[in-house]
Task: structure prediction
Amino acid sequence: EDEAAYKLDALAVAPDGGSPAMRADFYAEAANFWLTAGESERAYASASAGLKLAYDHLDLRVARARAYALSGRYDYAETDLTSVLTLDRTRADALRYRADARLQQDNLTGAKTDIEAALTLDDTSVDTALLRGRINEAIRLKSAPESTPVELLRK
Result:
């Protein structure tokens, strides 16, 4: 993954790299490969470089949001994903990623809303269904009455 990402980044800046739209696509692909390799800083750099060429490139925004999330910057991830969804409400992937970012920030209501919308758009996604389970469990745990182990033994 890292070798592919490196080559795509190099192609995006090469003199014969193509049009700005093609270069932005190369950066988007590179960012996704960097994410697969677990390289959040490099993914962020590729996505940001691509966004300088094509500010409204939604795949680049999603990739940058994923890089933010991988770095633990969930508020920044949510901001990028919200901008994607402002331009295209049918992006089930952006809804799923934003649901996860909201879950990480303990915004369970927002996470639940997003994950249900994502499943409405794509009810075959296993990743989305699994995230819904994590969100539902977080909601259940938050609403459960608090008990100490000693209190449980007395019941």
The two ends are 54 Å apart (CA to CA). Residues 126-143 form the longest helix (18 residues). The CA atoms of residues 66 and 118 lie 17 Å apart.
